[in-house]
UniProtKB/TrEMBL annotation:
Signal peptide: none annotated. Zn(2+) binds at residues 101, 295, 299. This is Progestin and adipoQ receptor family member 9. Belongs to the ADIPOR family. It comes from the Eukaryota. One of its GO terms (cellular component) is membrane. It comes from Pangasianodon hypophthalmus (Striped catfish).
Length: 380
């Protein structure tokens, strides 16, 4: 973090409008080694780095638990493809954000590219979440029964024909038929399209709309939240698909999913409030330059929201493992295919390619804008 008008080596940049952090800035010509060392020095980016780098290990610790559950298939089975895409989406988000804050002092141009990549990983993360919601949050969304064990397709089909449909599930079987067209054809494409729009908008705020950039970036990610959360909204408004008799603490009943989702939303709202308000440094400029400024709290709250989202997804994965006969309604033929390499990893790679092309374009624009400024900085 440093001020663009800064043209000389100094720890205190000129005071500019809405700049409440007055010291701890790094000059924009650090070498890679100097940037790495700055992670252990008191600058206004030190906390920004650690509040997203350390959570990587916390998230990984909670994620790998799903492979240890009884009845869970091997980690490389198709059942876990959406989970792995979600994991990599979060990993790239946290890693890109921490590296962007650590390396952005190498040059003005690299600074812009770092945060373009940061916005891109946020959008990729939202699509990773959508894949997890698509295959786990709604039991009929597409994970076939065969994905939970060694049964072949004919065996699974015969069991679906023989097993009676549980009463709670039959209540929602007819309503899901009205939801199939959106899920089958529009949900994932809409998530990808919105993710690309978000990258374009957020990258553009670094070159236009700068006065309202924090509000725009915050509000623009409300759209992917509402699109991605469609399966959750449906589940919250529908009867639980799991038998009432199984609603025990060990079986992770569906109401717990709602609890985690509400907490997930709460932390998102708090993080948005910190990002827009610039509190506490707005109230006391200069006193939160190194530790405790709003962006660090923004990082902490966004990670807490991701952690609750992970717990929410784990609740549903556990429920699917405990009730494999309810993955697809026994009286309903599967309308959607199960997860495949192409529908999960392939989709994410395609999306990353689109995002990368956007980053390259805005990176070139940044070079055109900041190239002459960077030469002036070196001249000093």
């Amino acid at each position: 973090m440093w001020s663009l008008p800064l043209l000389r080596h100094t720890d205190v940049p000129p005071r500019v409008t809405e700049n409440f952090i007055l010291s701890g800035y790094r000059f924009p010509d650090y070498s890679l080694l100097q940037c790495l060392v700055s992670a252990f020095r008191p600058t206004n980016e030190t906390g920004n780095f650690w509040t997203h780098f350390l959570p990587i290990f916390i998230f990984a610790f909670h994620f790998v638990e799903i492979f240890e559950w009884e009845g869970a298939p091997a980690p490389g089975e198709p059942f876990f493809y959406p989970a792995w895409n979600y994991f990599f989406g979060v990993l790239y988000l946290l890693l890109a954000s921490s590296m962007a804050h650590l390396l952005n002092s190498m040059s003005l141009i690299i600074r812009e590219i770092c945060f373009f990549v940061d916005y891109g990983t946020i959008s990729a993360y939202t699509v990773g979440s959508s894949l997890a919601y698509y295959y786990y949050i709604h039991p009929q969304a597409g994970v076939p029964k065969t994905g939970l064990g060694t049964q072949n397709v004919s065996e699974a089909q015969s069991e679906r024909e023989e097993e009676p449909s549980p009463a709670p599930f039959s209540n929602s079987s007819s309503s899901i038929l009205h939801f199939h067209p959106f899920f089958d054809s529009l949900y994932i494409p809409c998530s990808c399209l919105v993710a690309i729009i978000c990258v374009l908008t957020c990258c553009n705020t670094r070159q236009q709309w700068r006065k309202y950039r924090y509000a725009v970036r915050t509000l623009v990610f409300l759209l992917p939240f509402f699109i991605s959360s469609t399966p959750i909204f449906y589940r919250l408004l529908s009867p639980s698909p799991y038998p009432i008799s199984s609603q025990t603490p060990s079986s992770y009943p569906s109401p717990t999913m709602a609890t985690f989702f509400y907490r997930h939303c709460f932390w998102l709202v708090v993080s948005a409030a910190f990002n827009i308000s610039k509190i506490p440094e707005r109230l006391s400029p200069g006193k939160f330059d190194i530790w405790g400024h709003s962006h660090q709290w923004f990082h902490c709250c966004t990670f807490l929201s991701i952690l609750d989202e992970l717990h929410m997804i784990k609740v549903e994965i556990r429920a699917l493992l405990l009730h494999p006969s309810l993955v697809i309604a026994p009286t309903t033929n599967p309308q959607l295919p199960g997860p495949t390499i192409y529908s999960t990893f392939g989709l994410m790679l395609l999306l990353q390619g689109c995002i990368a092309s956007i980053i390259v374009w805005f990176g070139w624009c940044a070079y055109e804008i900041y190239g002459p400024v960077q030469k002036g900085l070196k001249a000093h």
